[in-house]
Amino acid sequence: MNPFDSISSEDEAVIEYDDGDFHVVKPGAYVICAVTGARIPLRALKYWSVDRQEPYADASAALKAIRG
Predict the structure, then answer these.
(1) Which of 35, 45, 60 is nearest to 15 (CA)?
(2) What's the rounded Cα separation, in Å, for the pair 24 and 35?
(3) CB of 16 within 8 A of CB of 22?
(4) Contact of 48 with 59, CB cutoff 8 Å
(5) Per residue in 22-51, pLDDT tens?
(6) pLDDT score of 3 more than 60
């Protein structure tokens, strides 16, 4: 059984972001980009800030967040 099988596509995950990895605090299918507001499927999550504890949809969104 895949751990994602029992998660509804409507459930937002709660994540703890670490250097090079993240940990699921509350299971879900996606997180919300802190810059764009887009849904990011956990399988596609590649960009986040450890200091700000927030996810980004792509490199451009991450750069916007860093620049303020």
Answers:
(1) 45
(2) 21
(3) yes
(4) no
(5) 999 999 999 999 999 999 999 999 999 999
(6) no
Total count of residues recorded for the chain: 68
Q: What is the per-residue pLDDT for 68?
A: 84
Q: What is the dihedral angle through the alpha carbons of 63, 66, 67, 68, rounded to the nearest 10 degrees?
A: 120
**What is the residue extent of each domain of the chain?**
14-67
User: Residue 4's pLDDT band (boundaries 50, 70, 90)?
Assistant: low
What ranges in 1-68 are assigned the alpha helix state H?
59-67
Element (H, E) at 39: strand 39-41
Tokens of 48: 């986040």
